[in-house]
TrEMBL record:
Keywords: Chromosome, DNA-binding, Telomere. Gene3D superfamilies: Nucleic acid-binding proteins. InterPro entries: NA-bd_OB-fold, POT1, Telomer_end-bd_POT1/Cdc13. It is found in: Chromosome, Telomere. One of its GO terms (cellular component) is nuclear telomere cap complex. Transmembrane segments: none annotated. It comes from Planoprotostelium fungivorum. The keyword DNA-binding applies. Residues 364-375 have a biased composition (Polar residues). This is Telomeric single stranded DNA binding POT1/Cdc13 domain-containing protein. One of its GO terms (biological process) is telomere capping. Residues 1-27, 358-380 are annotated as: Disordered. Pfam families: POT1. Residues 44-175 form the Telomeric single stranded DNA binding POT1/Cdc13 domain.
Length: 551
């Protein structure tokens, strides 16, 4: 019998200290839970189906916990847990904020069932992240894995028969996972020298990612492991929470093969032209790994094993991304995997030399083989993606803020951002404008029609005016966000193009189409200004583009 996956030991230790408050809380809230007869009004969303920027009700199994600690901003305490369900077995991070440590949901052990109402879904570094805060009236229910005792954070929590069914099915799923954990055992045995432990659950449910050479990195969004030599290490770039280190790495692959030019379907964010082989760029987001570079544990020339690497597209080039789930293991030059890569590299160099024209001794004298040592190429050979902008702002002096930073601020502000426009809403450009009642100063919920006028649903007047209302999905290297194009801000985005009924005005529609084609061109960026504001009605943060014009 194998147990369901356990969290890293440091987590268990941290949580054990908090058991006192948990016991107290369980006894405090145990009594009010009554099994109601009626079915619940709550619709629960599978974790995979969560939409960024919404508030949702979720159910899942806790796979890892970090004990509450003082939050970096503000006076609150924050507890972080990883929640998984059958739709999202790798799990998502959820931050729970409470003003007082004793108020946290009574989570003690991986395998506890966790239910949250009104959890806000955010985007953190391209991944789903949940936010539970009393500001958004969240409420949680926890069913202890070992004692089965339910506990709640609010006395108004409901508990109906359907809850029992959900809890039972999640339990069965989780216990089934534990039986498949033979892979976990082998991983744990090799884990002692890693700097950061990955969430063990993620390993049991996902297949082990393939180890690739740089020459085999040919497509985006592939999880892989790479053994390579660090050639260059940048300073820490950017400000929290988007700090990162840029590495250049080399593994000896990608030298010209004996016949013809080596080609890849997608240009790589490194130089494939060199006879020394590929040089790849690794963007390291995992702050836990920064110290190994800053304290000199890993310096240029060191061979490393990178785990949890994801290939990413940036401006039409491929690069390698290391996030909070990634690991870095320094390797000795005597490691047999390193020796194999170097041997293969030397063999390729010999073949290249044999093929070289004998009349050109100067060229062969320059080759690495003649110097009898493996010289990694210089970082100067890295090809940086070219940034082409299709918009301009009137605020050239404003600093650039990353999308992840903008989303994390959660306060009223103005930002300048460089990003790619991924898509837009509505998908039908004819719906980019809406009727606007000048009397009520409100845009109508109705759409324009080809013939006939629209009457204002508030005052009944015939509406003759129109406003721009649409959304753009932006992406930079830190994440995605939706920005709204509205009223005069959208008019100036389109270079003064006045809004009108686009079902009637083909001229405006054609001009709009041209402008949008410009925005959506491949490998171009927008330089734009974004303001953030909180909607009164839904208590959600919204972002609007302003003072930005398509060139
Ligand atoms: Zn009106």
């Amino acid at each position: 019998m194998s147990d369901p996956p356990q969290p890293a030991k440091r987590h268990l230790g941290d949580v054990a200290q908090d058991n006192e408050h948990v016991k107290k809380q369980r006894s405090e809230y145990h009594a009010p839970i009554q099994l109601a007869r009626e079915s619940s009004d709550y619709q629960y969303t599978a974790l995979r189906d969560l939409q960024i920027g919404t508030s949702a009700h979720v159910y899942g199994v806790v796979s890892a916990i970090q004990a509450p600690k003082k939050s970096i901003r503000g006076q609150d305490y924050v507890m972080t847990l990883t929640l998984c369900d059958p739709s999202y077995p790798g799990g998502m991070l959820i931050n729970i904020f409470e003003p007082d440590e004793s108020k946290f949901p009574a989570i003690t052990s991986p395998g506890d069932i966790f239910r949250a109402h009104r959890m806000v879904v955010n985007n953190y570094n391209g991944k789903l992240q949940g936010l539970c805060s009393r500001k958004f009236r969240y409420a949680a229910l926890v069913i202890g894995r070992y004692d089965g005792i339910p506990s709640i954070t609010s006395e108004r929590c409901t508990f109906v028969e359907e809850d029992l069914e959900r809890i039972q099915s999640l339990k069965l799923w989780w216990e089934g996972l534990g039986k498949k954990s033979s892979y976990l055992q082998t991983v744990k045995a090799n884990e002692s020298d890693t700097f950061v432990n990955r969430n063990p659950v993620e390993r049991t449910v996902n297949q082990a990612p393939a180890r690739l050479t740089l020459g085999e990195v040919v497509e985006p969004d592939v999880d892989c492991e790479i053994i390579c030599q660090v050639v260059h290490i940048s300073e820490v770039i950017g400000n929290a929470p988007t700090q990162r280190i840029k590495l250049s790495v080399w593994d000896g692959t990608g030298t010209k093969p004996t016949s013809g030019q080596l080609t890849t379907p997608i240009p790589l964010h490194y130089s494939p032209a060199s006879p020394f082989g590929f040089l790849a760029v690794v963007i390291l987001w995992n702050e836990a790994l920064f110290p190994v570079f800053l304290d000199g544990s890993v310096t240029a020339g060191r061979w490393v094993h990178l785990k949890g690497v994801q290939t990413k597209m940036y401006l039409g080039c491929l690069e390698l991304k290391m996030s909070s789930q990634s690991e870095l293991l320094p390797l000795e030059p005597t490691d047999e995997r390193v020796e194999k890569l170097i041997d293969e590299y030397k063999t390729r160099c010999e073949i290249l030399l044999e093929e070289a024209e004998p009349a050109e001794p100067v060229q062969s004298a320059k080759s690495p083989q003649s110097t009898k040592s493996v010289q990694p190429p210089q970082p100067a050979q890295i090809v940086e993606p070219e940034e082409v902008f299709v918009t301009t702002t009137t605020h050239d002096d404003m600093p650039i803020t990353s999308i992840r930073e903008i989303l994390s601020h959660q306060r009223v502000g103005k930002y300048r951002c460089k990003a790619k426009v991924l898509s837009y809403l509505p998908r039908d450009l004819k719906k980019f404008t809406k009727p606007f009642c000048t009397k009520c100063q409100k845009s109508s919920g109705q759409l324009f029609t080809e013939e006939g006028d629209v009457n204002c649903e508030h005052c009944g007047d015939i509406i003759s005016e129109a406003v721009w209302v649409f959304q753009l999905k932006l992406r930079d290297e830190t994440g995605d966000m939706m920005v709204i194009g509205y009223k005069h801000n959208a008019t100036s985005l389109f270079h003064g193009l006045p809004p009108s009924n686009l079902r009637k005005s083909n001229v405006t529609l054609d001009l709009l189409k041209k402008k949008m084609d410009q925005l959506m061109r491949e490998n171009v960026l927008v330089d734009c200004c974004i303001s953030s504001y909180l909607t009164e009605k839904y208590l959600k943060w919204r972002y609007q583009i302003f003072d930005t014009t398509i060139l």
